[in-house]
Amino acid sequence: MTRARLPDRRPSLTMQLVYEANTYAVTLGFDVANERVGEVFTHGAKIGSAMDRMLDDICVALSLLLQHGVLPDALASSMGRLGDGASPASIIGALADLIAKEPQT
């Protein structure tokens, strides 16, 4: 599937995500044409740190997957889980869960 480029102006929603006692600000941008989340941005790690740079790359990868048609539920269900079977094993899984739980437009 080809990439669905998002319009320059689009609705977004910013919320908090707490993962392993760290709080992150997560902004979801909506792809109105496809009625779902189309991009994700995350901040909360120390600026310039390895975690900050990793979060930037994670968000680019998740956004590209969404813009290429991967459904939020498919992303979330593909992520690793802790022993309880429900808790995400990484911040990537926590972001995917958040995207999947967000009502699509």
Describe this structure in words.
This protein is an alpha+beta fold. It has one domain (12-101). It has helices at residues 50-67, 72-78, 91-101; strands at 12-19, 22-31, 36-43. The chain has a three-stranded antiparallel sheet with strand order 1-2-3. α2 (72-78) runs antiparallel to α3 (91-101). The radius of gyration is 13 Å and the shape is globular. It starts with 11 loop residues before the first strand and ends with a helix. The model has no long low-confidence stretch (mean pLDDT 93).
Record the SSE blueprint.
Blueprint lengths: L11 E8 L2 E10 L4 E8 L6 H18 L4 H7 L12 H11 L4
Antiparallel strand pairs: 1-2, 2-3
Helix pairs in contact: 2-3
What is the terminal separation in angstroms? 21 Å
Q: Using the alpha-carbon principal axes, give the shape.
A: globular
Task: Please summarize the sheet with the most strands.
Answer: 3 strands, antiparallel
**What is the helix tally?**
3
Number of strands: 3
Helix content: 25-40%
Strand arrangement, largest sheet?
1-2-3
The helix-and-strand class reads alpha+beta
Report the portion of residues in β strands.
15-25%
What integer is the average pLDDT? Answer: 93
Order of helices and strands: EEEHHH
Poorly predicted ranges: none
